[in-house]
Amino acid sequence: MKNRCLRITCCLLMIIIGFLLRTGLGSADTPGKEIVFIPVKGQIEPGLAGFVERSIARAENSGAGKVVLEIDTPGGVITAAQSIKKAVFSAKIPTAAFVTGQAKSAGVLISLAGEKIYMMPGTSIGAAEPAPNTPKILGSWISDLEAAASARGRSTVIVRGMADRELVIKDLKKAGEILSLSADKAVQLGLADRVVRNRNALVADLEEDDGVAYRPVEYKPGFGETLAWWTVNPFISPILLLIGFAGLITEAFAPGFGVPGVIGLISLGVYFAGHMMAGVAGWLAVFVFAIGITAILLEIFVIPGFGAAGLLGLGLVVWSVFLASTSPLQAVISLTVALAGSIVMLYVFIKVLGRRGMWDRLVLGTKLNTATGYITPKKGMEKYQGMEGMAVTTLRPSGTAEFAGDRVDVVSEGGFIPAGAPIRVILVEGSRVVVRKL
Q1: Which CATH number is 32-221 given?
Q2: 375: closest CA among 403, 351, 354?
Q3: Less Cβ crowding at N or C end of the chain, within 10 Å?
Q4: How many Å apart are CA 362 and CA 387, to the nearest integer?
């Protein structure tokens, strides 16, 4: 029995020793430092730039061995690309760019910021002409591209050809063309370092080059960053404004405040909140917008007609959109789409309600003439002082009321009064009759 236990113990020790020799205690087979992949995909905008900056800082604090920007972008905002380039150049750990799709426009500058550039088969880099292509913007943009290329030891002539349509490069680019290179061509010309099949192949190559066992980690954007990217999208932001404006315009023609107004305010809230989280807008834009909407609501519900308050409100709303947009051009596009769409939606809204007989609930459908008992305002209206009657039309704040069979133009004391509500005359000043809801 004793010998049997000894044999079992020896066997267990041999198994443990064999396992330790196979795996190694802290051997090179055990993953070493993290290699952090940061996705740079879709439109380049301030929200994405902030995410990249925070991710690089996080990688540095965690002791990562390398940062790789995984790039697939058609371009975007130049200032955002410049911020990403600055963050990459300032990184305290080695960096690389990995083009997995396309690196166009602003994506070229971001790729050039990496110490190494790797590309997957079938990818491309180039076509970096700015828009608008004014001499000032073009000159500044080309200097950014050339500075990044020069700092990383790459051809400044080639990157200039990606932005300067008039530049001629012998056997590569004619005047009037914008240069764009495939992965193989970019490696051949020395703009990129290597073509790799996928992320795993890239990690294997980097491990061999650096002599380090890497553990791949990907940093993904959170909900707030995703919302920010979504709202600053040049196709989504005009739609949010359209829904917001259409909801408020609908409320201007409907009694009370209902579902359209709530949806409109939510849409506008998402628009401004997303732009703030993306780093595009600040509280000034929200403050200006709130004042503008307040002025418009005062014009609609309190002040008769449409005058200074309404014009001031519209001006402030337009200004707030410019403050919140990624560029003046984007602001113009968003406002044009929102206003044009709101007018079309309002027209359809009126037509649909008209066919269903619902529009009479929102607007005055009764003819006001002497045959129906209506009398025009005139002097001697003092007889209605203190009289009680009924609102014939919605008072918002002006409308028509009936007193002892007479229909008279009146104005409410300041609030909304629905049609059919009992009212009392509280003030008569000349032809102006002020009423209050009972």
Answers
A1: 3.90.226.10
A2: 403
A3: N
A4: 27
Judged by phi (left if over 0) then psi (alpha if -120 to 50, else beta), residue 176 lies in: left
Q: Nearest Cα to 391, choosing from 429, 433, 332, 330? A: 433
Is CATH 1.10.287.130 what the domain over 370-437 is classified as, yes or no?
A: no
Calpha distance 354→361 (Å, rounded) = 10
The two domains 32-221 and 370-437 share their CATH topology (first three levels equal): no
CA 263 to CA 251: how far, in whole Å?
11
Of 113, 121, 116, nearest in space to 87 by CA: 113
**Domain spans of the chain?**
32-221, 231-361, 370-437
The contacts of residue 73 (CB under 8 Å, 6+ apart) are 40, 41, 42, 43, 44, 101, 102, 103, 104, 105, 106, 107, 110
Residue with tokens 């008992």: 373
Q: How many residues does the chain have?
A: 438
Instruction: State the burial class of residue 303 (Cβ atoms within 10 Å of its Cβ: 0-12, 13-18, 19+).
Output: middle
Given a cut of 50, is residue 26 above it in pLDDT?
no
CA angle 251, 227, 107 (to 5 degrees): 125
This prediction has a pTM of: 0.62
Tokens 């004042």: give the residue.
291
Interatomic CA distance for residues 59 and 55, integer angstroms: 6
pLDDT in tens, 378-436: 556 788 888 899 999 888 778 899 988 888 888 888 677 888 889 998 888 877 888 98
Give the DSSP letter of residue 122: T
Query: Is the previous residue joined to 130 through a cis bond, with omega within 30 degrees of 0?
Result: no
Tell me the pLDDT tens digit for each residue of 8-24: 444 444 544 443 333 33
**Of the candidates 269, 263, 276, 277, which has an alpha carbon nearest to the alpha carbon of residue 226?**
277
- Sort 112 into a burial class: Cβ within 10 Å, 0-12 / 13-18 / 19+: buried
